[in-house]
Amino acid sequence: MKKVTVIFITVILLCSLFGVNAFASREKVIDKVDLLTDTEEARLGEMIDSVYETYGVDIVLLLEDTYVSDIREYVENYYDNGGYAPDGIIFYISVYDRDWYMCTSGSCMETLSDDRLDDIFDQISGQLGNDDYYGAMHSFVSLCEGYVAEGPYVPTAMDFVMGFALSMCVVVPVAFLIALLIVFIEKRKMNTAVLQTNANEYIIKGSLDIKESNDVFVNSTVTRVPISSGSSGGGGGGRSHGGRGGKF
Amino acid sequence: METLEYRCPNCNAYLVFDPKSGDMKCDYCLSHFSVEQVKENNDTRGKAYNEGENAEAPEEHVHEDGYVSFSCPSCGGEIVGDDTTAATECPFCGNPTVITQRLNGEFKPDFVIPFKVTKEEAVAALEKLYKGKKLLPDAFTKDNRVKKVTGMYVPYWICDCVASGTVTYNATRVNTFSDGKYLTTRTDHFNVIRAGTVAFDNIPEDGTTKLEGIHTESIEPYDYSEMIPYSNQYLSGYVADRYDVPSEDVLERVAQRARASVEESFRDTVHGYSTVSRANGDIDISNGDVHFALLPVWMLNTKWKGNIYTFAMNGQTGKMVGDLPVDKGKFWKRVAMFTGIFTAIGAVIALFL
After folding, report:
1. CA of B341 vs chain A CAs: smallest distance (Å)
2. B330 lies in a domain?
């Protein structure tokens, strides 16, 4: 009994010493269609472990060859139910229809914002297009690591100016249209001579005699629309995710 | 030609109808006589010229261009009108003259609503109409003076009718519910039918071609509780015309307005639906009594930049209507001002978002 206790305590101590916990033990390179060699998988796994050990962020690569009707829901559930760290990203590739989807979770929704995900995909789309899956995965992990190391994007003064200028591009035309509407109403009030449209003033009080009042039911039409949670920042399985996807 | 003028029994000056007191008033000695008094004593206090019976009756001259003139019974000056002019005044001596011949027989009005608003009040109302009009050219109010103010008894046809018909609507009732995964929308479609009748009393339509319908309709309504049987005395001091549009010609417009009201009345009884659209309808109008009445209107004309601007005022209720000119410069200045204000508000919001 003493031996068992000593072994258990030793394992716990070793885990805490080397920073290994339950999240780290999950499979993070899942290549169901053998697009990667074992060596490539091992190299990517090492890179992903390194990112996790340094930043506590999980990067999951999921390569499949199956048809999925709702990719976003599938990928979000895969990450949520896979026991991965709260902060992380999963990159899904399906060669069936050449779909890709990147789903972020926790702090990665900020560090790997939609703009950054677009940027990442722009940089790896060429490799994916040439079926260089290892190259694409390698670049993906490196780029993610770079952004995670950099932290959330901090807007610069130029961003502020550009954002303000963009807002003004909308505000000024809208302000002009509202102004035009107000002055047109003022202009309309300049002419008070208008023809009467009815003779309501001259209806004899109580003379309205409704002799027939029938409301006949004809038919019913029913439409059902799936409730969508939006393309980014939506909720899936109770957790919030960001994401980007498309075809390669 | 049969004309009539009313003279003050005290000073022999003209008597005119006074909107304030509702009496006949002498502007010279300020005597007042009730309309009934003047009516009863017309023979002794007034001076009537009856063609054929009175040697002093003025002779009517019909001109080629359609205008009609006759000599003023008072000063002999030429009074010009047309074949519908029923009351006017001499442009030389101001003598108010009622041409009773024009309001006889089929042209005799059934009713009249006497003036209640004075000329001064009409001019003041026009000044008030200018106020607060930010788009009005400055020069229009500064340089502009009212060129002509005319108190007119306008010939109106007062029509009763009953409208009956059926209107059908397509209506929907929409219910939306969610089971968490799907949003289900159930739309129930209905065929709604309403049939019935609505009765109308005293719908007015002008019976003259001299005024724009847009003016005579927009100064409605008149208070018919003050409408009284016609009497010549109310016309003294004002311009009046007999109708030159027969009642048959205004009935279609009356029916058009009545139909619109029936549609609104029926539509107001259709409740409880998400959407309602009119499918079809058929409304018949059966015309009732039609009366000829003279209703009071102040017509004010101003001239600016070569254009004549006409304003009409209900001579009983004081409701004034008209079309004011718009200063294009002011228009765009105000657009720029509002654009600036809303842009500033938008900029502040954008800064904090």
Report:
1. 8
2. no
